[in-house]
Design brief:
This protein has about 375 residues and is an alpha/beta fold. About 35% of the residues lie in helices and about 15% in strands. Helix 2 runs antiparallel to helix 3, helix 8 runs antiparallel to helix 9 and helix 12 packs across helix 13.
Length: about 375
């Protein structure tokens, strides 16, 4: 089993070959994504940075600084020496950029999609909008801004809460997805109806596409409710198959990440309408332990009834997910069970835990370690 940090604070070192980064004070530097930013004209006719879209038009992705960047060294200063020394350390090192964290390649892929959307729809605000969310004091903001500029990221919105919960702000931003290293805050977001997941960094990371965003989802308790999982946990596999057969024409209820899949589908259709279905820079995957013949039909009927398209569906009938994910090479994979998150990480996939549903009660050990 891979040695993966189940305590998100203690992020373990990894290599991100596809980013082609050079050494810096924290281990990495600017990547190969340094393409030209999209520009528009201001009222004087001068070139200016592309403006972030209005929250009501955007697909808003809120990302914690602890998953976008690697901050384990700074976290140790905080834990060992306290907040005042931590702030002093950050100010003293504010010109030293943080290295990329587990969400970095995902955010870069979002920006690549935005570049394609701006080419096709120059005036549209239906874009990904990235909000950096951090519990940090505003004093740390300078280092974060320096890091964002160093890595050539387009992140204009910050939410620095100084130790307070960010959940209320996430709702104000109309957040479509929240990624954090803090499992407690992720659970708090899910309880408020916000799609959220806890991210981890494995010891190694598989190379991912620089031109196509790939997002993979588990089914039950992620896209769908945990109704069927409850049957399995309570009565076993045979009863589960019987239940799915009897209810194959009754739709599954929605799970916590259904809305995020809808948002991805909305942007995909913008490419389809321009004749770019086969060249779409967004691709989605369903990777489920369900069996195709005995329980897969209900999942597919539910997605179709919702009007959602999954580009690829893999029904593994209980086989390990890691090898399939290694072939898919998603920028992020969402699963409600830490067993599968660990299996994905073992193969180099960036996996995110969705702490939702009945499986959490059957996974107490992992939940405890993930929440520390």
């Amino acid at each position: 089993m891979v040695k993966m940090s189940l305590d998100p604070v203690q992020v373990m070192s990894g290599q991100v070959a596809e980013l082609k980064v050079a050494p810096s004070s924290n281990g990495d530097s600017g990547g190969s994504w340094e393409g030209k930013r999209e520009f528009d004209k201001d009222h004087l006719g001068l070139t200016a940075k592309a403006k972030p879209p209005k929250p009501e038009n955007a697909v808003t992705i809120a990302v914690s600084s602890r998953v976008l960047f690697r901050t384990e060294r700074e976290q140790k200063v905080f834990e060992q020496k306290g907040v005042e020394e931590y702030l002093r350390y950050q100010i003293e090192h504010e010109n030293e950029p943080f290295a990329p964290g587990p969400a970095f390649a995902f955010v870069k892929a979002l920006e690549a999609v935005n570049a394609r959307l701006r080419e096709l729809y120059p005036q549209s605000e239906e874009l990904f909008d990235i909000v950096l969310v951090t519990y940090n004091h505003a004093h740390v903001g300078i280092r974060l801004i320096n890091t964002i500029n160093h890595h050539n990221l387009f992140i204009e919105r910050f939410c620095m809460t100084g130790g307070s919960s960010p959940i209320g702000y996430l709702k104000a931003w109309q957040t479509n997805l929240y990624l954090s290293a803090d499992a407690d805050k992720v659970r708090e977001a899910l309880a408020e109806g916000i799609a959220a997941a806890t991210m981890f960094m494995p010891e190694k990371m598989t190379e991912v596409s620089e031109s196509q965003l790939r997002v993979a989802f588990d089914g039950d308790a992620v896209l769908f409710s945990d109704e069927s999982e409850r049957i399995f946990k309570a009565h076993g596999l045979d009863k589960f198959f019987e239940h799915e057969k009897e209810n194959e024409d009754r739709l599954l209820d929605h799970g916590p990440l259904k809305g995020f899949l809808e948002a991805l589908g909305k942007l995909q259709k913008k490419f389809y309408s321009k004749g770019q279905r086969l060249d779409c820079p967004i691709r989605t995957y369903l990777v489920t332990a369900r069996s195709a013949a005995s329980s897969g039909i209900r999942a597919l009927k539910t997605l179709r009834a919702w009007g959602l398209e999954i580009d690829e569906a893999l029904f593994l009938a209980g086989a390990p997910k890691g090898p399939m994910l290694e072939k898919i090479r998603p920028h992020i994979y969402f699963d409600d069970q830490m067993f599968h998150v660990e299996g994905a990480a073992e193969m180099g996939t960036i996996a995110a835990h969705v702490p939702y549903g009945i499986a959490q009660k059957h996974n107490t050990k992992h939940n405890t370690s993930a929440g520390k």
